[in-house]
């Protein structure tokens, strides 16, 4: 068998007259009156191979046999070709290909493997359903776009490892089989055959182990690691995902932020050739929620929310005045909104009702000021004040939501993303900081905003028991173009403070000992101050490529039902396997 000496993307004009061997898949076949052209493709690119145009010096019989083999080829056949690099004739060069100025005059060919009928056209994979593409994911990889994503992902890993190694970090692997601990999502459980009735849990993150590494004196740790969460899926969620995890000792928030700004700047420069300015913009959690309705705003959209609760409280429009007494009234201006018709408004109203809104009020700025069905409830002075606050011009429209802070924020964030026009080919990272340490669960009790190991802000420890929801944390998230790409915090390094936080979270001493006893014991043996961060690699790579779904940057992802069409998993297992681990399947109905 012929073995390749070059790949299908590297030959150039300077290789003229060179004898080479290429191997790959046939991605195009053309017969031009006895002259056969083949586009040969591998991971690196495409090269045109020609049969019968140039004199090869072969005996006539061998030349004829070569052309017959070429005529028998079809798309996705696997072949190897030996030939001479020639320049393409004038007028036939392809400027869209890096190899478009040359071609290979074939002198020898090996047909390695034929290809069965394909389940879809590899040049148009987007025209088939997602399950079909995922079932034949290895075929989709050949088509180009996914292959490019995986190549970028590889360069991302290489750049990342180099950066952290150069900055004194060491890469340490943490266990996949560990114990179940409450970290905000459901664990994947793994039954133990050797310890009947006992279970491991797959890690949602290496959180506790990286804290133990700091207590162990490692100092600077990082890891590119698989994590697992048994939760409902969305475009940016998968049951197994890749995380860039890191931790450092004897540092504060500023140390981590400055390091990670340099890291993101470096990886963007090296991997996609984009230069980001540092330092990144910073917003407090409360400011982000007030101005954008979300803690992951897309700053490429130049629209901000305006609060008019004070105006609404004195309004004769009861929808506004009643909401202002127990909630808020806020609005969002969409400039140059003539294309937003009444039918669009009605459709949008239905959409935001799914977010909890009771309705959508609006005013449109026409030639002589603001107009809508609700302007009759406002005086001229009030309308002028509204127009002034939103700085409206002819053609603008203002959307208003009157409800609780949560509903208003969610709805106006949706409207901002729906009608806002983000700048293209722009990356705008920012830090969100000063998060509350706790938020309320459905029963109104404290639950961690991030996780229970996050340190309260310095000087606010005395508020923990008195006003837990007023306590700010030493937590910080990085947001890029509307996506949270990572988050971190300074950790609690005092066992006394950690126990206080557990108590506020209604985690009894017995339960804390059962779930976190190994951590509390480790903290008691002289834990240094430490903190860290974790990036969602899949989401970050998708952002770098401008892709919405992380499934498009993962080699073998699951569907939204956490199912793999490729392997048919999850699947049934033999009764003998279940007997070995002491598990019996019973009728199960999900609520």
How is this structure best described in words?
The protein has helices spanning 60-72, 130-135, 137-142, 145-166, 207-215, 253-272, 285-292, 309-313, 318-326, 342-353, 380-390, 405-419, 495-504, 509-523, 537-545, 575-580, and strands at 19-32, 35-42, 45-51, 78-87, 102-113, 170-171, 188-191, 199-202, 220-228, 240-249, 281-284, 305-307, 328-334, 361-366, 369-371, 397-403, 429-433, 438-440, 446-448, 475-480, 483-490, 530-536. Helix 4 packs across helix 6 (253-272) and helix 13 (495-504) runs antiparallel to helix 14. It is of the alpha+beta class. A hairpin with a 5-residue loop joins strand 18 (438-440) and strand 19. The strands form five sheets. The chain has an eight-stranded mixed beta sheet with strand order 6-9-10-22-21-20-17-11, sandwiched between helices. It has a five-stranded mixed beta barrel with strand order 1-2-3-5-4. A five-stranded antiparallel beta sheet has the order 12-13-16-14-15. It contains 16 helices and 22 strands. The protein is globular, with a radius of gyration of 30 Å.
Care to give the gist of this entry?
It is built from 16 helices and 22 strands. The protein is of the alpha+beta class and 591 residues long.
